[in-house]
Design brief:
single chain, alpha+beta, Beta-Lactamase, Arc Repressor Mutant, subunit A, five-stranded antiparallel beta sheet, 53% helix
Length: 246
Amino acid sequence: MGVWPGDDPGGEPDNDDERVLAAITAQVRGAGPAAVPGRLCAAAVDLLPVDGASVSLRGDSMPLQLAASGGRAARLAQLQATLGDGPCHHVLRTGTPVLARDLEDGSCADRWPVFTQQALGSGVRAVYALPLGSTAVCVGTLDLYSVSPGGLTAHQLHVALLVAGVMTVALTDLPYDARDTGDGWLSGLAAGHDRVHQAVGMIMAQLGVGADEALARLRGDAFAHDLTVLEAALDVVARRRRLDMP
């Protein structure tokens, strides 16, 4: 966990921005396209009073976790995809940031009861979710996790938005040549998304239900067995798991 030294109220904002961008540049220097999102998550943890960061992209039916600074952040991003709820989903729906200062506050439990319980169980007390993209189109989220309750200062939020802006540029402008080699993040992400859709189709055929209910059943089965929705989908596609009517 890091705190940017520019939090000194006497600092010049423009000078702070230059130092933040220099720190981000140093973090991603020499990284290939596939490694950039993870490096930017690490930069967010270095620059802000947070303990983890993850980035997810908008998908047709669920957010797709792209990178994370560590295991706990990755698990919380996957949990939101599995549940179909959480700060990430609110940002994708509205395009506006979510700054949950204390997950022990009753309002958080009312909004995201299962996610809040699971996040608190993992030691996380605050979540800050920021949109990626423009004011017109939200293409994903940068989610920041803190083990301590409390909000971000105006300057810290500004730094977080700078990281989100760089993340947006990285995801939309970098030449992802690794897609053609089979080892890029885009090809892996697309393959995982395709498996979820394939599993949803199989559940629709098995149970005679619509796509929304099939996805809800897949998510519920994944959560009940402590799996991510992708792990459950792979089991369904491989016919290791069959969902039955209740």
